[in-house]
Write a structure and sequence with these properties.
With about 70 residues, the protein is an all-alpha fold. Helices cover about 60% and strands about 0% of the residues. The chain is built from four helices and no strands.
């Protein structure tokens, strides 16, 4: 049998920077989720919370929104 990979529990700031760069390089979301070890659902949620006014994902916005939600 083939074991499924375990998803990361938390997305770090470094992960967010990697995600931003991969999206800019037009790497598919499926490939990004596989490379970063996170579910596609978690990736899509991350992208939504980190979008700027132009609809582009920004790592710093994802991080700020995370910190804002914790306070």
């Amino acid at each position: 049998t083939c074991a499924l990979p375990i998803s990361k529990i938390k997305i770090t700031y470094d992960d967010r920077v990697d995600i931003e760069m991969m999206l800019q390089d037009k790497i598919s979301k499926s490939m990004i989720s596989e490379l970063k070890g996170i579910s596609r659902g978690a990736l899509y949620n991350e992208i939504e919370k980190g979008k700027d006014e132009m609809g582009e994902y920004r790592a710093i916005l994802g991080q700020k929104n995370l910190l804002r939600s914790r306070s």
